[in-house]
Specification:
heterodimer, A: alpha/beta, Amidase signature (AS) enzymes, 16 helices, about 40% helix, globular, B: alpha+beta, 3 domains, nine-stranded mixed sheet, three-stranded antiparallel sheet, 16 strands
Chain lengths: ~450, ~425
C-alpha cells in the first residue's frame, strides 16, 4: 500500500496538522527546508512546493531577494490539480536561487542535510528533498532543469522523479530555462510518486509545451552502464555502485557497459543553452512591479533597474552575464547555435541506446559534500559535478534517482533513465527496487 | 534614393497575441492578466486567430509562406516591455520574399512577421503612465527591400498596401508605426539613416520630406550624411538624432521555448482580395477608370459586391453616390437588387434619404417620383424665381435663400438637392446674369 493510501486509511487526531506544523517549524530552524510553512493546513495528504512554483497568495520567490514579497495571484497548474484532489498544501521549500546550483548553497538560508547538517542537501530542490526525507507522509513538488531533482534526492536519501519534458504543465513555474524545466516529484517511495504523477500530469491549455500523452510502462530487462559516466565517478561511488549492479543482476537484469562519447560534451551544451535561456527569463526582474521594488523614481530607467538587479546573488549574476554573452550576435553561432545542434545529436544518440534498455548511472559522481567542501569548489568544478544528471535532463528523458546504499552514514543515489514517455517504467523499476531494499530515514515527523 | 520600410500594423483579433485578454479595451489597464503583464510563472499561449490573419496578409503580399513558424525573444530593457523581451520572429517568420506592384514597378518585400506590441507610455509633465492594455496586442511587421525611390512611390506603395490590408480586415491609420530607412539622397555620401517609430501615414511622408531636405542641405554644404538613428517629431515636423550608429543593436535573439513550432501549412485561410487587381478587372469589364474604381472599393468592403451587382449599367459617379448614401445611412449590407434600385434613383437624380432608402431596402416602389428632364427642372426653377422675385433681391445678400430655393424644389419634386442646386446655379447665371 502506498504511503498516500495508508495515510488516508488511518485514523488521525484532530490536532494532527497542528502538531505536524509545530514539529516541522521546530526542525526547520535547524534544517531550513521550508521558506514558508502553511500554518492553516487542516486536511489532505501534505505536500510542499519548491519556491519557484507559484501557489496563490503565498510568497513565491525562487529563493531570490529580487522576488521578496511576490505573492502570485494564481497557482501553478500542478498545484491546482493536487488541491482539487485530497492533498493539503504544507508550504514552500528552499532552493538555489532560481534553480542555479547543485548543492543548495546559492541562497540566503541554505537547507541542510537531514542525515548530518554539516553536509549539503544538494540542489537546486534542496528544501524539497529535505522535506521528503524528514516526514513520514509527504510529497515534495520539485523542479529539475539539469539535475535539480535527482541530486538533492540522492543526497537526502529519497526518491526523485523527473518526468518526460512536457508531461507536467510548467504553468506557474518561475522559469529557469524553458526548454529544460520540468516539474517533478520527490518522495520517500516510488509508489507514492506513481500516484502523484497521475494527478499532476496532463496537457494544459495554459502551457503550449505540455503534452497529454499517457505515460507508458515498457519494462526492460537490460541495463546499460555508460563507460564515460563511470570514468567521472570517484572511487567510493564506483565501488558502491558495483554492489548495486551485482544486486540488479541477482534480480534478473542483464547489465551491459557501453560507450557514449558525446556525453562528455553534455555539460557544456547544457550550460550554454540553460544560461542563454535563463538570461532572457531573468531580464524581467527590474524592481518595477513585483518582488523587490525600487523607490527612487528620479533616476533614469537604466539606473533604476540596475539598482534592483543588484539583489541577484553571485551565481545568478554569473549566469546572466554568461547567458547574455553566448547569445550575442558575434558569437551566437559559435556557442548557442552549436549547442542547439549538439543537443539534437545527443538526443538522437541516447535515444538509440535507450531503445535497447535503461541507462543506469550513479546520480552524482561524488559522495555528499560538506558545506565547507562546497565552498572550495570553483564554478567550473561545481558545474562538472552535474555530468551524470545533465544528459537525461538535456534530452527530456524520464529518470528517477533512488537510494541504494549508505556510506559513512550518508545515502547514495543511483539514477535510472528511459525513453520519452516511458515514465511509468522508471517509476516501476524503483518500486521493484524498494520492495527489497530498506530505505533509512533520520526523522519521521507526522507519523501515525 | 533608396527607401526601405518596416511597417507595424495591428491585427483585428478578438484577443491578444498570447493571452485571452481583449484586444479592443479602451479604459486603461482594464484588459490585463499575468501573461501580458509578464508576471513570474505565466506562460504565453499563441492566439491561432492571429496566425490565420497573418498568413492571409502574407498570401496577399505574394509572400512565400513558411510551412512552419516559430518565435524568438528580443531582449531589451524599457519600461513599456514587461518581460524585458518582446516575442517576435526570426528564422521562421510567417512569410518571406513577397512583392507589391505599384505603377508598373515591383517593390520587393523581405519578410512578414508576427509579434507582440509593447505597452503604451503616456507621458505627463514629470511622470509617465503605463497602459498595459496594449501590451501583447498582435502586430504584423512588414519589411520591404529598399526599392522605393521617391515620395510618389512611397505614397503609391502605402495606398496599395492599405487597400490590400483593408480587404484582410486590417485598417491602417494613425496607429500604424513605421521605421523609415533612407540612403543615397546624395549618392556620393550614401550612409543609411533610420527614422524610428513614425506614427501614421502623414507622419511617414512628413519624415521623408524632412530627411530629403536635411540630407540634400548637408550634401550641398559638402557635409557627410552620417549613419544614425533619428526620431520624428510630429508637432515640429522634423527628425532629430537619437544616436549615432556604430553597429547594429544587440538584442541577443534566441528561440522562445515557451512556444512551439506551428504548422502554417495547416492554417486555413480565405483567398485574399487584391483590391487594385479587382479594380483593374472591373474597370476593363465595365469600362471604368481604374483609379476611381479603386477609390470606390476602398469606401467599404461591400462595394466590391455592389459594383459587380450593378454590372456596369450605371456610371461610376452614380455608384460612388450610391455607396456614399449607403454608408451615410448605415445600409451597406443592402441586397444587390435594392442597390440597383438605388442606382436607378440616383441616376434619375431623385431625392435619397432615410425614408426612400428604407423603402428601397424593403423592395417598395419609391412613389411620387418618376424622373424629370433637365429642361423641365430649369423651367420650374425659373418660374419659381419669377413668381417670388423678392427672393432674388434677397439672394444677393443672403446665401440662405439659395438653399431655401433648392430645398423647396427638391422637396416638391422629390429630387436630389445636389442636382437642384446645380441647375439653380445654371438658371441664375444664364437667365438672371448672377454668378
Amino acid at each position: 500500500m502506498s504511503s498516500i493510501n495508508e495515510f488516508y486509511s488511518k485514523e488521525k487526531k484532530e490536532s494532527y496538522y497542528e502538531t505536524l506544523v509545530k514539529e516541522l517549524s521546530s526542525l526547520n530552524k535547524e534544517l531550513n527546508a521550508f521558506s514558508t510553512i502553511n500554518e492553516s493546513i487542516n486536511s489532505g495528504y501534505p505536500f510542499s512546493a519548491k519556491d519557484n512554483i507559484c501557489v496563490k497568495g503565498f510568497e513565491s520567490t525562487a529563493s531570490s531577494r529580487i522576488l521578496a514579497g511576490y505573492k502570485p495571484a494564481f497557482s501553478a497548474t500542478s498545484i491546482n490539480k493536487l488541491l482539487s484532489k485530497d492533498f493539503g498544501f504544507l508550504g514552500k521549500t528552499v532552493m538555489d536561487e532560481f534553480g542555479f546550483g547543485s548543492f543548495g548553497v546559492n541562497c540566503e538560508t541554505p537547507a541542510r542535510n537531514p542525515f548530518n547538517p554539516e553536509y549539503v542537501a544538494g540542489g537546486s530542490s534542496s528544501g524539497a528533498a529535505v522535506a521528503a526525507s524528514i516526514m513520514k507522509y509527504h510529497l515534495a513538488i520539485a523542479e529539475s532543469t539539469g539535475g535539480s531533482i535527482s541530486t538533492p534526492a540522492a543526497f537526502c536519501g529519497v526518491v526523485g522523479f523527473t518526468p518526460t519534458y512536457g508531461t507536467v504543465s510548467r504553468y506557474g513555474l518561475i522559469d529557469y530555462a524553458n526548454s529544460l524545466d520540468k516539474i517533478g516529484i520527490i518522495s520517500r517511495y516510488a509508489e507514492d510518486i506513481r500516484e502523484a504523477f497521475s494527478v499532476i500530469r496532463g496537457e494544459d491549455p495554459l502551457d503550449s509545451t505540455s503534452v497529454g500523452k499517457v505515460p507508458e510502462e515498457k519494462r526492460k530487462d537490460k541495463i546499460i552502464i555508460l563507460k564515460e559516466a563511470m570514468e567521472h565517478a570517484e572511487e567510493k561511488v564506483r565501488s558502491s555502485f558495483a554492489g548495486l549492479i551485482g544486486k540488479l543482476e541477482n534480480m534478473g537484469y542483464r547489465v551491459e557497459e557501453k560507450s557514449f562519447e558525446p556525453i562528455s560534451k553534455a555539460v557544456s551544451i547544457y550550460y550554454i543553452i540553460s544560461m542563454a535561456e535563463a538570461s532572457t527569463n531573468l531580464a524581467k526582474y527590474t524592481g518595477f512591479k513585483y518582488g523587490y521594488q525600487g523607490e527612487d523614481f528620479t533616476k533614469g530607467y537604466n539606473a533604476f533597474f540596475t539598482e534592483a538587479r543588484n539583489k541577484f546573488g553571485e551565481e545568478t549574476k554569473r549566469r546572466i552575464i554568461l547567458g547574455t554573452f553566448v547569445r550575442g550576435t558575434s558569437v551566437k553561432s559559435k556557442y548557442y547555435g552549436k549547442a542547439l545542434r549538439a543537443r539534437a545529436l545527443i538526443i538522437d544518440g541516447m535515444n538509440k541506446l535507450l531503445g535497447d534498455g535503461y541507462i543506469l548511472t550513479p546520480t552524482m559522481p561524488i559522495t555528499t559534500p560538506k558545506f565547507t567542501e562546497v565552498k572550495e569548489l570553483t564554478p567550473l568544478q561545481s558545474y562538472a559535478s552535474d555530468i551524470l544528471t545533465i544528459p537525461p535532463n538535456l534530452c527530456g528523458f524520464p529518470h528517477i534517482s533512488f537510494p541504494y546504499d549508505y556510506v559513512g552514514g550518508m545515502p547514495l543515489g543511483a539514477q535510472l533513465v528511459s525513453s520519452h514517455f516511458n515514465d511509468n517504467a522508471v517509476i516501476g523499476f524503483a518500486e521493484q527496487w524498494e520492495k527489497q531494499f530498506e530505505y533509512k530515514f533520520r526523522y519521521n515527523l507526522g507519523s501515525l | 534614393m533608396k527607401i526601405g520600410l518596416e511597417i507595424h500594423v495591428s491585427l483585428p483579433t478578438k484577443s491578444k497575441l498570447f493571452c485571452s485578454c481583449s484586444n479592443s479595451a479602451t479604459e486603461p489597464n482594464s484588459a490585463i492578466c499575468e501573461v501580458c503583464m509578464g508576471l513570474p510563472g505565466s506562460k504565453p499561449v499563441l492566439n491561432k486567430g492571429a496566425l490565420t490573419v497573418a498568413k492571409r496578409v502574407a498570401e496577399a503580399l505574394n509572400m512565400k509562406i513558411n510551412e512552419r513558424t516559430s518565435f524568438v525573444r528580443k531582449v531589451y530593457f524599457y519600461p513599456d516591455l514587461p518581460k524585458s523581451y518582446q516575442i517576435t520572429q526570426l528564422d521562421e517568420p510567417i512569410g518571406t520574399n513577397g512583392h507589391l506592384d505599384i505603377d508598373g514597378k515591383q517593390i520587393h518585400l523581405r519578410r512578414i512577421q508576427l509579434e507582440e506590441d509593447p505597452a503604451k507610455l503616456v507621458r505627463g509633465d514629470d511622470y509617465t503612465l503605463i497602459d498595459f492594455n496594449r501590451s501583447g496586442k498582435p502586430l504584423v511587421e512588414i519589411i520591404t527591400e529598399p526599392d522605393i525611390a521617391s515620395e510618389d512611390e512611397l505614397r503609391s506603395f502605402i495606398a496599395e498596401l492599405r487597400s490590400i490590408l483593408y480587404y484582410c480586415d486590417i485598417e491602417i491609420n494613425e496607429e500604424m508605426k513605421t521605421d523609415l530607412n533612407i540612403s543615397g539622397i546624395d549618392s556620393e555620401n550614401g550612409e543609411r539613416v533610420e527614422v524610428k517609430n513614425i506614427t501614421g501615414i502623414a507622419g511617414l511622408t512628413g519624415a521623408l520630406r524632412y530627411e530629403i531636405t536635411r540630407q540634400s542641405e548637408l550634401a550641398r554644404k559638402g557635409a557627410k550624411v552620417e549613419r544614425e538613428t533619428r526620431s520624428y517629431n510630429e508637432a515640429e515636423m522634423r527628425t532629430v538624432s537619437m544616436r549615432k550608429k556604430e553597429s547594429d543593436e544587440e538584442y541577443g535573439l534566441i528561440y522562445d521555448a515557451d512556444l512551439t513550432e506551428y504548422d502554417l501549412s495547416k492554417v486555413k485561410i480565405e483567398k485574399p482580395i487584391i483590391a487594385s487587381r479587382v479594380a483593374h478587372e472591373y474597370a476593363s469589364k465595365y469600362g471604368f477608370d481604374p483609379k476611381i474604381l479603386l477609390e470606390l472599393i476602398m469606401l467599404s468592403k461591400e462595394s466590391l459586391l455592389l459594383i459587380d451587382a450593378s454590372k456596369g449599367k450605371y456610371p461610376a459617379q452614380a455608384i460612388t453616390a450610391g455607396i456614399e448614401y449607403l454608408k451615410k445611412y448605415d445600409k451597406i449590407n443592402i441586397s444587390k437588387d435594392s442597390f440597383n434600385s438605388l442606382l436607378n434613383l440616383v441616376e434619375k437624380k431623385g431625392m435619397v434619404n432615410k425614408e426612400t432608402l428604407e423603402k428601397i431596402e424593403k423592395g417598395e416602389k419609391v412613389e411620387s417620383y418618376s424622373g424629370i428632364s433637365d429642361e423641365e427642372l430649369e423651367r420650374t426653377i425659373e418660374s419659381m424665381i419669377n413668381e417670388k422675385s423678392i427672393l432674388l433681391n434677397e439672394y444677393e445678400k443672403n446665401k440662405k435663400v439659395f438653399n431655401f430655393i433648392v430645398g423647396k424644389v427638391a422637396k416638391e419634386k422629390n429630387l436630389d438637392p445636389r442636382y437642384v442646386s446645380e441647375k439653380l446655379n445654371k438658371v441664375l447665371s444664364e437667365k438672371f446674369g448672377l454668378v
